[in-house]
Structure formats: structure tokens, C-alpha cells
Amino acid sequence: ILIMDIEGGEVDTLPYSVDFLKKCRLVIWETHDWACGSEGTQRCRDALKSAGLVHVDTEGDTEAWLRVDN
Fold first, then answer.
1. How high does pLDDT run on average in the chain?
2. Distance from the CA of 54 to the CA of which of 1, 17, 37, 64 falls in 20 to 30 A?
3. Residues 11-34: pLDDT tens digits?
4. Over 60: is that where the pLDDT of 38 sits?
């Protein structure tokens, strides 16, 4: 399980961490469009998808992604 809220640093972390994300069953992260823009947020979502995770819920700016193949 990965819980991430690093005030915009997600865009500098998630896109480069696909191999690590492939080991996670659940990722909860807070989006920060104000810090990294909508393109940066989309790059993070693309990394989560590339790691085999599926978006399952959103509450405000917080998203939950789950591995459904386990």
C-alpha cells in the first residue's frame, strides 16, 4: 500500500516509479493540479495505469487506485 501526498512532488515521483508501483496493491494519492498542472497529473495517472492499477474512487482531490489482477 502506498499513500502519497507530497504537495506536487508526485509528478517528480510517480512517472519514474512504474516498477515500484507494479508491486503495490493499492495507491492513494492526492492530486495537485495547482502545483504540477493538469498535464503533470495526467502523467501520474498514466504511470499508475502502466503499472496495472485501476482508478476505483475519488474523494475531492484524493484518488484511490487498486490492482485488480491479484
1. 91
2. 37
3. 888 999 999 999 999 999 998 877
4. yes
What average pLDDT does range 32-58 have in this prediction? 91
* Contact (Cβ atoms closer than 8 angstroms) between residue 29 and residue 37: no
Q: Which residues of 28-42 are buried (b: 16+ CB within 10 A; e: fewer)?
A: bbbbbeeebeeebbe
User: How far, in Å, CA of 47 to CA of 7, rounded?
Assistant: 18
> Read out DSSP for the chain?
-EEE--TTGGGGTGGG-HHHHTT-SEEEEE--HHHHHHHHHHHHHHHHHHTTEEEEEEETTEEEEEE---
What is the spatial distance between Cα 40 and Cα 7, in angstroms, rounded to a whole number?
Answer: 13
